[in-house]
Amino acid sequence: MNQTKNVLGEPLEPCSLKPLTGFYRDGSCFSDKNNPGVHAVCIYATEEFLEYSKKVGNDLSTPNQAYNFAGVKAGESWCLSGSRFVQALQNGMAPQIFIHATHERMLELVDIEILKKYAIDL
Fold first, then answer.
1. Mean pLDDT of 61-80
2. How many domains does the chain have?
3. Which of 29, 41, 63, 115 has the fewest CB atoms within 10 Å, measured from its CB?
4. Got the DSSP string for 4-36?
């Protein structure tokens, strides 16, 4: 995993190894200029959020064998795109997050105090 910081300025912690997540599929929400979708926020997936996400065009739960993607299940962690988190936030559907596994690039999109409100690991 890359030596980088989370939104709290601490070393970025892993998000999920099973399912293997992250833009680089390294288990972390590391995000750099090669990741235009800013897949930087580590969410805790619930059935409610997965259903909402599917309805707005971001189907995280349906398996896709072409990408060796088993689909995210309720109770799992996943690196979500920053813009999708902002969209969910605006729609009152933002999921809880693991703030210690959320990359510092999220601060370009969302204020730290808002992220703290959704953190389940503080």
1. 90
2. 1
3. 63
4. -BBTTSSBPPP--BTTB-TTTTSSS----TT-T
Who's near 65: CB < 8 A, 6+ residues apart? none
Distance between CA 101 and CA 15 in Å, rounded?
A: 5
Q: Supply 13's token pair.
A: 């912690």
Domain that holds residue 26: 1-8+15-122
DSSP annotation of 94 reads: P
Per-residue pLDDT of 16-50, as tens digits, reads: 998 889 999 999 999 999 999 999 999 999 999 99
Tokens of 52: 């909402």
Question: What's the DSSP call for residue 105?
Answer: G
**For residue 41, what is the domain's CATH number?**
3.30.56.110
| 69 Rama sector, left if φ>0, alpha if ψ -120 to 50, beta otherwise | beta
Q: Determine how many CB atoms are found less than 10 A away from the CB of residue 56.
A: 12
Task: Please give the structure tokens belonging to residue 98.
Answer: 């693991």
